[in-house]
Amino acid sequence: xxxxxxxxxxxxxxxxxxxxxxxxxxxxxxxxxxxxxxxxxxxxxxxxxxxxxxxxxxxxxxxxxxxxxxxxxxxxxxxxxxxxxxxxxxxxxxxxxxxxxxxxxxxxxxxxxxxxxxxxxxxxxxxxxxxxxxxxxxxxxxxxxxxxxxxxxxxxxxxxx
Length: 161
Known about the structure:
Layout: H1 3-29, H2 35-46, H3 52-59, H4 63-75, E1 79-84, E2 87-95, H5 97-121, H6 126-149, H7 154-157
Antiparallel strand pairs: 1-2
Helix pairs in contact: 1-5, 2-4, 2-5, 3-4
């Protein structure tokens, strides 16, 4: 296996380990909530004027899939929709008090995970962070270009109904 293949394999392995470890704690602390619901709540809690289009683009999902999730979140009382006085066409979402509780639990879990992993990140120099971020950005841009070559625009595809 060459270094390029090793990097990809190691990234995948690292991500899977992190997801597995975090999932155990998340499922225990957020019993009864689907990951898609929690992530929508997280996005809405962090981003003012969240709407179906912004959520769909962020999660690389269709608008109809996001509409189903947000409808369930409204029914469960975690989010509510609103319109701006100057724009009666667009529907936005904000967290209810119940949604804010879930968002806070989720945020606390992320802080706990960061604290768990602090021992590693404290050893990384600014130069190393810059190198890693540069690589991730270049690779992401490359993958965007490859997707575009296929004639697929994920951002506009996720905006279709």
